[in-house]
Amino acid sequence: MCLKCDQSDLFIKFSLLPFNCPRVPSTKRIGPHNYEIISILIGSLLGDGSMEKDGNGSRFAFYQEKTNGEYLLWLHQVISSLGYSKPEIPIIQTRKGTNGQIRYSYRFRTYTYSSFNWIYEEFYPNKRKVVPRIIDQYLSPLALAVWIMDDATLHKNKGLRFCTNCFTLKEVQYLASVLEKKYSLNTSIHKTGVVNQYGLYIPKSSMANLTKIVKPHIHPTMLYKLLSI
Fold this sequence. Notes:
Layout: H1 3-15, H2 35-46, E1 50-54, E2 57-65, H3 69-81, E3 93-96, E4 102-109, H4 117-123, H5 135-138, H6 141-151, E5 152-154, E6 160-162, H7 169-183, E7 188-191, E8 198-202, H8 207-214
Antiparallel strand pairs: 1-2, 2-4, 3-4, 5-6, 6-8, 7-8
Helix pairs in contact: 2-6
């Protein structure tokens, strides 16, 4: 049998699968996943995004407080328009904070894909989120922009601080090396004041370069995080 014909039939079979249909089992949601969606997902995992196992597949979960609601709704619009989540707009949810105050937030999940399992295995090898060694391959300008929008704050000295508290010192050092080698960004690592927690900083001197890299991908409500705005 002709190998070329076999591959053609296989491509046709996979291309006709409705990978964004809720009723399709995760093992049959093949994709394909383009670089845009992978960049968004990887960038979010470095920030507030998370993954969870669901049957034979994996899915992504996104969460933001009400103050960042416009960004979360924009993120949902992008992901749902690519066919990776339900189109229904996330509704605001409430929960009690540690001090008893009511907190308002938005959240949504992607569909479940077995073809997302490789990302889960990289980021959650022992069910704890880590920084995998594939980051240097996937930290595109879009991924970096999503990471900033998700989890970075403009520091009082006009630099940018990433909330990398949940990562180990070695993982934060690796992220710093990727930013330096891939984008020529100066970085520094500071203790947060909590044992074994570290923050990754980009100083004011590198903010113009950073802005040039990520500004095309930044949502208008998040532009305040960039020095030159």
